[in-house]
Design brief:
The protein has about 190 residues and is α/β, with parallel strands linked by helices. It is built from four helices and 14 strands. It is an enzyme of class 2 (transferase).
């Protein structure tokens, strides 16, 4: 959770580090997709900072500025990630639809590809929660229906539909998602 300016800098460095941009200025000038995704994440981190900070008058101004910018970027990039849901080192590959709601908790250094939906099984449930561990990879078109807990170092294949808990260090695929491989020699 981003509370202090030092936390904000730590999160931004981790997020920038996973983007693998050799020339960020050139990427920004040419409107490269890596920079576009990083700009979305950067604004999200600033929004989280101003949400969690004890607000004075100027902090409220910055909060509303980043909130409006977040809403604009959500529409532009078709990404809807709620603040305070994702750990540091988030990697969004390519623009495209992603929805990560407010009741999610995603760990550090996770990769989320386009067309990913993480949502509720039932619209009537208010207490459900989805917890995804560290170093997870969520493939294109994956659907994760909460409440589920996904362990660390998990690879969710493209098009998988996750409806049950997943242990650490596995690869899952299919509809419904099943463990197809146990990973060895991981971090």
């Amino acid at each position: 959770m981003i509370i202090t300016k030092a936390d904000l800098i730590e999160y931004l460095k981790a997020d920038f580090g996973v983007q693998e941009m050799k020339y960020p200025l050139l990427s920004r000038l040419t409107l490269g997709e890596n920079y576009a995704m990083f700009s979305y994440i950067k604004n999200l981190r600033y929004l989280e900072y101003y949400i969690n900070k004890k607000q004075k008058l100027w902090d409220k101004v910055f909060y509303y500025y980043h909130l409006m910018k977040h809403r604009k970027k959500c529409l532009k990039y078709q990404i809807n990630i709620s603040p305070n849901t994702i750990g540091k080192g988030l990697l969004l590959m390519h623009p495209g639809f992603r929805r990560i709601g407010a009741y999610m908790k995603i760990g550090d250094y996770c990769t989320v590809l386009p067309m990913v939906l993480i949502g509720k099984k039932s619209p009537l449930s208010d207490t459900s929660c989805c917890v995804i561990g560290n170093h997870c990879y969520i493939g294109t078109g994956a659907i994760i229906m909460e409440p589920v807990t996904i362990g660390n170092n998990v690879i969710i294949a493209a098009g998988a539909v996750v409806t049950k808990d997943i242990p650490d260090n596995v690869v899952v695929a299919g509809n419904p998602a099943k463990v197809i491989k146990v990973l060895e020699n991981v971090l």
